[in-house]
Each structure stands twice: as C-alpha cells, then as structure tokens.
C-alpha cells in the first residue's frame, strides 16, 4: 500500500489518520472530519513541520479582512495555500530558510518555494504595506520556539507534489521530504 | 458588495476559529521557555498610541521589567497566550513589572472587538504599531514574538511562538530580573 492509498484509507478513520516512519521522520496525516481538509506533519531531528490545507475562500477571506486589493487576493488564493506550523523540538538552536526549500510536481519538475520576502516585494509594488500571515522565511529558533504562517505552492488544484525542506540544527544541515502532498481543492462538498 | 460582506464575515469567524477549531488538535501546546540572549541588547525606544490615542514613550518604563509582546488579533497563538499575560500582569503590576502588547497593523475597532470576546479582561497596555515600524526595529519575523526587558532597558530574553507566561519558571526569571 503506497502513501496515497494510506491517505485514502485514512478518510474512514475518525481522528488522526495515520502515522508512519519515512526515512527516519515520523510522518502523520490527518483528515479534519468537520472541514474535510488534510494536514501533514513530519517530525525529524528536532524539527517539526505541519502543513494544513486551506481553501481558497478562506485565503480570500483572510486577505479581504486585511484590505488587500482584489487582484492580489485572487492571485494568492490561486496558489495552493497551507497553514504551516514549524517547531523546534530539540534542545539546541535551529534555523531554516524557506528559499532553500523546493517542491517537485507530478512531472518530476523541481520548483523553488515562494518566500515571504518575494511576496512582500510584489505586494510593495502593488502598494500593499501589510506584511504578516505568511511564513517567515529566515528564522532562528531557540529552544521551545515555534512559528506559524501561510506557505504557498503554485500548482493546479488537487495536484500532487513532494515538498523538500531543509533546516540546520546547531549548524548541522538536515533535510526532509513530505511526499504526495495534495493541493487544496477549490471547495469541499458538504454532506 | 454582498460577496464582500460575506467574505468579511467568513473571515471574522474563520480567522478566530479555523486555524484553531479546524485544527483544534493541531495547535501546539504552549510552552514556557524563555531563551536568554547571549548578550543583553539595548531595547530600541519607541512612542506609540494606545486604543484611546494616549501616547506612551517606552523610555518611561525604565526601572521596570517589561514583557514586550508583539501580536495581532488574527494570530491564534497570540490570542491563546493573552490570558496568561493578564494573570502575570495582575500578579506583578504593583511591583517593578509591566506588560505591553504591541499590536501589528490593526485598528482600534478590530482590537476592541477582539478584547470584547475574551473571558479575561485585558488591563495591560495595548499599543498600536500601525505600520509595523517598532516590530521591524525589534527584528520580529513572526507573531507572536515576546521580549523580556530588564530595568536598564536591555533585552534579556526572547520567545518566538505562544507561551504560558504565568508559568512558575517564567515568574522566577521575572522575579530575578526585578531583584537586579
């Protein structure tokens, strides 16, 4: 049974869907029974990363509330957006740089993950001063530190991809890959 | 127009609930670890208004230990740590201690609406950093970020991400700084 089949099987489980070890990382996939959205969590070498699918309407609502122009709201909502929670679970200093992260689409093509700095640069050109909600892209985590924010991936709705992320623990580089992530759907059919 | 109103309502409800209720299990348990800076760093001064348009000069807090918290109403861990900040403030406000919550890029109405939803009434100062200039000066990358500043106006501890600030270990640090 591959990971995709495991996820599909997990739809019938009420709470946390499955937890498994991939290349030493503890990976779990969860389907929220209320929203139908998926969350992937990986814990490895002092670093925990959690990606929560967000619907485009939710993203539009967030940025409408922050008074972004309609065109920019639609543009970011066209991305696959994830609420991401990153944690230092170690007893050492941890750093990460989103500009080193990549995703591999279903055709095997590797893309860089768009950083907060890149978004803010584009937003500034559009006259937007709002600078929060996106995942900070260059962070030093001391012990117990954690952070959350949006991560954006430019792929079609419901497409599959692998996310490769890197971090340093006390200066030592590490990397991990979350496989078979799914871009959030346009909407969720309510029963 | 109707779509905009619907979206705004959607945002209000969802932002206050989705990343927490959609992910009720996903929100990490709040820790209590404050990390000491390798060397104390002079805390940048600032002047900001509160929601009543009263201007506060941070230099006037010299002589007090200050928990300086950067936050926003839409940020789930920011909201979760607020009650513990209030309990801490209540406990030590009559000593050489204060709490300042510096809100990022929101207006009085949003903050007022948010504080009205809390079971705990917030009595510490909430200041408005409407252009995020103060957070930039403090090199805040994400919310919440909190600094503990000593009586000499130097940053001594930092916490990135939500915390339970009235944990005994945090109180011990604050008591220690108050005794310096």
Structure, explained:
The complex is a heterodimer of chains A (191) and B (180). Chain A has one domain (3-182). Helices cover 19% and strands 42% of the residues of chain A. Chain A is built from 4 helices and 12 strands; from the N terminus they run H-E-E-E-E-H-H-E-E-E-E-H-E-E-E-E. Chain A has helices at 3-10, 56-65, 70-77, 116-125, and strands spanning 16-22, 25-31, 38-44, 47-53, 80-88, 94-97, 102-105, 110-112, 138-141, 146-153, 160-169, 172-182. Chain A is globular, with a radius of gyration of 17 Å. Chain B has helices at residues 2-22, 76-92, 108-117, 133-137, 168-179, and strands at residues 35-42, 47-50, 55-57, 65-71, 97-104, 125-129, 145-149, 154-160. In chain B, 36% of the residues lie in helices and 26% in strands. Chain B has an 8-stranded mixed beta sheet with strand order 1-8-7-4-5-6-2-3.
As for the CATH topology of the largest domain in chain B, it is Glutaredoxin
Shape of chain B: globular
Q: Report the CATH C-level class of the largest domain in chain B.
A: Alpha Beta
CATH superfamily of the largest domain in chain B: Glutaredoxin
Segments of chain B where pLDDT lies below 50 for 5+ residues? 1-25
From the alpha carbons, calculate the radius of gyration of chain B and give it in angstroms: 16 Å
In which range does the helix fraction of chain B lie? Answer: 25-40%
The number of helical elements of chain B comes to 5
Strand content of chain A: 35-45%
Q: State the order of secondary-structure elements of chain B, H for helix, E for strand.
A: HEEEEHEHEHEEH
* Oligomerization status of the protein chains: heterodimer
pLDDT averaged residue by residue of chain A: 88
- The neighbouring-strand order within the major sheet of chain A is 1-2-3-4-5-10
Main-sheet strand order of chain B equals 1-8-7-4-5-6-2-3
The major sheet of chain B is characterized as:
8 strands, mixed
Count of distinct strands of chain B: 8
**Integer count of domains of chain B:** 2
Strand content of chain B: 25-35%
Total of domains of chain A: 1
Largest sheet of chain A: 6 strands, antiparallel
Work out the number of β strands of chain A.
12
């Amino acid at each position: 049974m591959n990971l995709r089949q495991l996820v599909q099987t997990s739809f019938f489980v009420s709470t946390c869907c499955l937890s498994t070890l991939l290349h030493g990382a503890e990976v779990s996939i969860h389907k929220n029974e209320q929203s139908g959205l998926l969350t992937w969590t990986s814990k490895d070498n002092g670093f925990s990363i959690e990606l929560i699918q967000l619907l485009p309407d939710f993203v539009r609502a967030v940025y409408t509330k922050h008074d972004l122009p309609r065109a920019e709201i639609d543009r970011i909502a066209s991305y696959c957006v994830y609420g991401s929670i990153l944690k230092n679970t170690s007893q050492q200093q941890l750093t990460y740089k989103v500009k080193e992260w990549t995703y591999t689409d279903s055709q095997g093509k590797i893309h860089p993950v768009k950083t907060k700095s890149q978004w803010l640069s584009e937003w500034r050109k559009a006259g937007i001063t709002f600078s929060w909600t996106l995942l900070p892209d260059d962070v030093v985590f001391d012990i117990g530190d954690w952070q959350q924010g949006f991560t954006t991936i430019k792929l079609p709705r419901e497409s599959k991809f692998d996310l490769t992320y890197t971090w340093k623990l006390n200066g030592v580089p590490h990397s991990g890959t979350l496989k078979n992530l799914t871009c959030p759907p346009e909407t969720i059919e309510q029963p | 127009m109707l779509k905009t109103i619907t979206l705004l309502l959607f945002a209000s409800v969802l932002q206050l609930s989705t990343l927490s209720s959609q992910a009720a299990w996903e929100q990490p348990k709040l820790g209590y670890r404050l990390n000491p800076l390798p060397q104390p760093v002079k805390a940048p001064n600032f002047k900001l208004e509160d929601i009543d348009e009263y201007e506060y000069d941070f230099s006037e807090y010299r002589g007090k230990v200050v928990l300086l918290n950067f936050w926003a109403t839409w940020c789930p861990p920011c909201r979760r740590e607020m009650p513990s900040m209030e309990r801490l403030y209540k406990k030590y406000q009559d000593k050489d201690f204060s709490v300042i919550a510096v809100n990022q890029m929101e207006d009085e109405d949003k903050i007022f609406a948010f504080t009205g939803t809390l079971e705990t009434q917030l009595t510490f100062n909430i200041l408005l950093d409407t252009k995020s200039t103060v957070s930039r000066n403090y090199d805040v990358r994400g919310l919440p970020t909190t600094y503990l500043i000593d009586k000499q106006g130097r940053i001594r501890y930092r916490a990135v991400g939500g915390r339970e600030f009235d944990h005994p270990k945090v109180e011990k640090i604050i008591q220690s700084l108050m005794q310096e």
